[in-house]
Write a structure and sequence with these properties.
The complex is a heterodimer. Chain A is an alpha/beta fold. Chain A is built from 14 helices and 20 strands. Chain A folds into 3 domains: 294 residues, FAD/NAD(P)-binding domain; 70 residues, no CATH class; 148 residues, Fumarate reductase/succinate dehydrogenase flavoprotein-like, C-terminal domain (Methane Monooxygenase Hydroxylase, Chain G, domain 1), CATH 1.20.58. The chains are: A alpha/beta, B alpha+beta.
């Protein structure tokens, strides 16, 4: 076991946590506004998280004939009216400037002979996206890393922020561990921006989210920030024969090593079939065309018509669900935004990218390529606002008692001599949440049963997790955070007594507009998780005079 | 079991794979200046390591290692 004795203290104006699209933009933009910026990542800035896997970047540009009203109308409808229209519109409007930033830093997009970017229509029909030119996944994020270094951002890799530090009700930095050295890091910052990505529970099928364990959300929640969007699930499916095969980085290699050819195979063909050999029913006009919207495969399996197959180029292949288990629909969950500049409800704490709950896509993914564009937009907004805030902050001292408190929390698993391994608790959590009838097809009795188990993990296992080395100390904190996120997810799912987009309740199969044109907000109150409903502005309601079937073209089973 | 072995004759100790691994599976053996597989259970077959290795020193199999589920652990 590594005994952690050293404590290193760093001071900066803006601490950015997480080095994907949002984190790099936040760091670069804050630095360009004159702030002294430190950017840390528990992996490696430019290679971690989902950003390296992004293929397309949504760009809205009126000069290309794009109509803001038409885009918004479509997004509002597909997202089933619970998108945050202010964030949706902001993402659209600022996406072109962020595209120009990327181009100026050296990122290249698919272009025609004249050098103009090629615009690819999104499956939804109205919107368009650009594609990164690099045929090697992830090159563009490394361009962002180089740009951050160029403008003077201090980058520290393999450092995991584990607990936020507070002084007089304000976040004044955080405490971090290194996976390499027995050193505890204290970052003293006027503003902290969480860009730590989404929250999965390390599902087998989707390697990019192995690191994304809801660390930011958990830290922020413990410190008093508010969270939303946990009931809307991500619905990616994958091939059963190569669950770990998608997506991967093999595209970076000129020749595929022998034995790994299968990993390169396309994940699915054009159609999905049930066990009776019938294709899954086509979606009605007006519903999302994006393939990973709605729970159609789960519905078939639940009706006893599984397994599901796909006509992949190498034959009929079986598909399985839960590829992104634990993750919400992109940009749904995260910190509750207190404004349109990335501030959370906690002074001194900002969030951007997937860590910020912009709800720009509401309850169903409407806008292909918008996840990564939004990370650039929110990263910029948060970076610039945090830099401004740093100029206003004179007092930044962290009380010694606060450092001691955090130190006890951060080191607790490695000080314990025995208990449960983080890997085993993670496995328990995965096995508990993975069945489709728990996390995807939800019903009150099952949710309550699973919640009681998760609370048992929370109360009886999590306090006894122990770490034998620094690697396991990272895993211990990741596991704690994933269990907390599971509780949020289950409680939000129980609380939302309707179905909408990617949230399906078997016992409430209809959208309930009178009750649920609203978001579910979570916060810690007197040591307990408290949920409340926050209505969307009435101006964003759908036309309630229209028949239900027109408002919502997509039908849930049981409707 | 995912990352299976590293050919120490080929490994030049550049450490690019250690940076690339999102799951902290690989570590540098400081004395030998070679990369070692330290935490194979965590490998998710993302293929970053083999994609980046300049000397093709890493052997990976397509099957992800799956821990046996035990009563406690």
């Amino acid at each position: 076991m590594d005994a952690i004795r050293d404590l290193k203290k760093y001071t900066c104006d803006v601490l950015v946590v997480g080095g994907g699209m949002a984190g790099c933009f936040a760091a670069i933009k804050a630095r360009q506004k004159g702030a002294d910026v430190i950017l840390i990542d528990k992996g490696y800035v430019g290679k971690s998280g989902q950003s390296p896997y992004a293929g397309s970047f949504m760009v809205f540009n009126p000069q290309w004939g794009h109509d803001l009203g038409a885009w918004m109308e479509q997004i509002n409808r597909i997202s089933e009216y619970v998108n945050n229209r202010e964030w949706t519109q902001l993402t659209l409007i600022q996406s072109y400037e962020r595209y120009l930033d990327l181009v100026s830093w050296g990122v290249r997009f698919h272009a025609n002979d004249k050098g103009e970017p090629v615009r690819f229509p999104a499956p939804s029909g109205v919107t368009e996206q650009l594609r990164f030119e690099e045929n090697k996944h992830g090159d563009y994020v490394q361009i962002l890393r180089r740009q951050a270094i160029k403008v003077g951002v201090r980058i520290m890799d393999r450092i995991m922020l584990t607990e936020l530090l507070k002084s007089k009700g304000r976040i004044v930095g955080g405490m971090a561990i290194s996976v390499d050295e027995p050193i505890l890091y204290v970052f003293q910052a006027a503003a902290t921006i969480l860009c730590v990505g989404a929250c999965g529970i390390k599902p087998a099928a989707y390697p990019p989210i192995v690191q994304l364990t809801g660390d930011g959300e958990a830290m922020a929640y413990r410190s008093g920030a508010e969270i939303l969007g946990k009931e809307f699930v991500d619905v990616h499916i994958s091939r059963r024969d190569i669950p770990a095969g998608i997506p991967n980085m093999l595209g970076r290699k000129q020749t595929i090593p022998p034995g790994l050819e299968g990993l390169q195979g396309p994940r699915r063909g054009g159609h999905l079939f049930n066990a009776e050999g019938n294709p899954l029913p086509p979606r009605p006009e007006g519903a999302s065309r994006y393939m990973f919207t709605y729970l159609e495969t789960e519905f078939e399996v639940h009706a006893g018509r599984g397994p599901i197959t796909t006509d992949a180029p190498d034959g009929l292949k079986e598909m399985t669900g839960g590829a992104c288990l634990g993750m919400s629909l992109r940009k749904a969950d995260g910190l509750w935004p207190a404004d349109l500049e990335g501030r959370s409800t906690l002074p001194g704490l900002f969030a951007a990218g997937d860590a910020l709950g912009t709800m720009q896509n509401g309850s169903a993914y409407a806008l292909t390529g918008s996840a990564i564009a939004s990370s650039a937009v929110t990263g910029t907004l948060a970076g610039e606002a945090a830099a401004w805030e740093a100029t206003q902050m004179v007092e930044r001292d962290i009380p010694l008692a606060e450092i001691e408190r955090a130190q006890l929390y951060v080191l607790e698993p490695i000080k314990r001599k025995g208990g449960f391994s983080p890997q085993w608790v993670t496995q328990l959590l995965q096995n508990t949440l993975m069945p489709y009838f728990v996390s995807y097809i939800k019903r009150a009795d099952r949710l309550e049963a699973i919640l009681s188990l998760v609370m048992y993990f929370q109360e009886q296992l999590v306090p006894k997790i122990f770490a034998r080395d620094l690697h396991e100390l990272r895993l211990a904190h990741e596991t704690k955070n994933m269990v907390l996120s599971a509780e949020m997810r289950l409680r939000s799912a129980l609380y939302r007594t309707e179905s909408r987009g990617n949230h399906f309740r078997e016992d409430y199969p209809h959208r309930n507009d009178p009750e649920w044109l609203a978001w579910v907000k979570i916060r810690l109150t007197d040591g307990r998780m408290e949920l409340c409903k926050v209505g969307i502005p009435a101006a964003w309601y759908p036309d309630l005079n229209k028949p239900y079937s027109e408002r919502y073209p997509y039908r849930f089973p049981g409707e | 079991m995912a990352v299976e072995s590293i050919n120490s004759q080929r490994c030049n100790g550049c450490g690019i794979c250690v940076q690339s691994c999102p799951a902290d599976v690989l570590r540098m053996d400081g004395e030998r200046k070679k990369v070692v597989i330290r935490y194979p259970d965590e490998c998710v077959v993302c293929c970053w390591c083999i994609a980046e290795c300049p000397t093709d020193a890493i052997v990976l199999t397509p099957t992800r290692y799956n821990r046996i589920f035990t009563s406690w652990g």
